Amino acid sequence: MRLLALETSCDETSAAVLSGTSAAPALESLVILSQDVHTVFGGVVPEIASREHLTAVVPVVERALADAKVSLADIDAIAVTHAPGLVGALLVGVSYAKALATAAGKPVIGVHHMEGHLFATVLEHADATPPFTALLVSGGHTLLLDVEAWGSYRLLGRTRDDAAGEAFDKAAKLLGLPYPGGRHLEQLARSGDPKRHRFTKPMLNAGQKPGDVDYYDVSFSGLKTAVLLATQQAVDLEAEKPHIARGFQDALIGTLVAKTIRAAKAHGRTKIVLGGGVACNGALVDAMRAEGKKIGAEVFAPTPRLATDNAAMIGAAALFRLERGERSEATLNAHSAMPIPGMTTAS
Ligand code: ATP
Ligand code: MG
Ligand code: FE
């Protein structure tokens, strides 16, 4: 099966061509156009994002087809992110995918964006398959999942307030870094002294055993306040910034790693799969690997291009859904919020 996949949920217009199976997906082309325009506003402006997708979607799809040296006639199905995200942005992808599918007489399949993030790693690491513990850390989500099989996701923990990427971006803003600030903060933290600001690892000791409220949940808004206070109390703020960045990053990563390891141990998992833009963070991946090793768990992380938003991961998830015989109706619509299909909550 060969498919064309589209992703327009936020500020990346992306298209990819994939072939093969969900067990062995082959990426034939991937085009990602990031909307730089939002940088000046310090955050994504939804109305502008939709307009930018409208301008970009046709050339991005054409380029992806050309790079894969195929035409629409060679495509068996069209996959598109339909939830969650900015509704106006999602609608551009959904409308275009449905129009293409109708015109070419091909099936269309709507994909959940976070299921896409979960499938990103398998594109490069054939062993990143269930069962595993998954940590999805992106701009809008922080999800700790036990993945028994593809399509069977048990939600163990989530954030009580800010998502991990959102926390990075807000802390970066307090440190005067450009938007989105995650990678800039990681860079700045490299020259920071880890002993200077030992911020409390949020919710680390909340809940003592599986089943306790907060055993797996995280919270980052307090950490953001700690960063604000540190910037206000700094005598020489410029000199202090790398140390504050390091303290913030260490505390956030410390909590994420501890909770993920707890989950892997409790469920006897020997694989940990990371996904989402924050999985670009080298310190997070290194810390997870070091702690994973202690419990005999191997850690898989996507490369940056596949960790942040892209259509390849949507295509990989779509291969699995299509193999199960799933197709979307012509009534497929965009939704700003929606649980991942197949996700149950631990109770
Ligand atoms: P969602 O997937 O929840 O809808 P999103 O699609 O906006 O949100 P992604 O594209 O997966 O999120 O990730 C973007 C986030 O990743 C941003 O918050 C960004 O700052 C963060 N990020 C990217 N690189 C790094 C890094 N090296 N360290 C920390 N955070 C990073
Ligand atoms: Mg983005
Ligand atoms: Fe995303």
TrEMBL record:
Record field: catalytic activity: L-threonylcarbamoyladenylate + adenosine(37) in tRNA = N(6)-L-threonylcarbamoyladenosine(37) in tRNA + AMP + H(+)
GO terms (BP aspect): tRNA threonylcarbamoyladenosine modification
Listed GO CC annotations: cytoplasm
Record's subcellular location: Cytoplasm
Cofactor: Fe(2+)
Annotated residues for binding of substrate: L136, V137, S138, G139, G140, D169, G182, E186, N281
Keywords (A to Z) from UniProt: Acyltransferase, Cytoplasm, Iron, Metal-binding, Transferase, tRNA processing
Residue positions binding Fe cation: H113, H117, D309
Cofactor binding, per record: Binds 1 Fe(2+) ion per subunit.
UniProt cross-references to CDD domains, sorted A to Z: ASKHA_NBD_TsaD_bac
A GO MF term: tRNA N(6)-L-threonylcarbamoyladenine synthase activity
EC number: 2.3.1.234
Gcp-like domain residues: 31-315
Pfam families in UniProt: TsaD (PF00814)
PANTHER family per UniProt: TRNA N6-ADENOSINE THREONYLCARBAMOYLTRANSFERASE, TRNA N6-ADENOSINE THREONYLCARBAMOYLTRANSFERASE, MITOCHONDRIAL
Protein family according to the UniProt entry: Belongs to the KAE1 / TsaD family.
General function of this protein: Required for the formation of a threonylcarbamoyl group on adenosine at position 37 (t(6)A37) in tRNAs that read codons beginning with adenine. Is involved in the transfer of the threonylcarbamoyl moiety of threonylcarbamoyl-AMP (TC-AMP) to the N6 group of A37, together with TsaE and TsaB. TsaD likely plays a direct catalytic role in this reaction.
The name this protein goes by in its record: tRNA N6-adenosine threonylcarbamoyltransferase
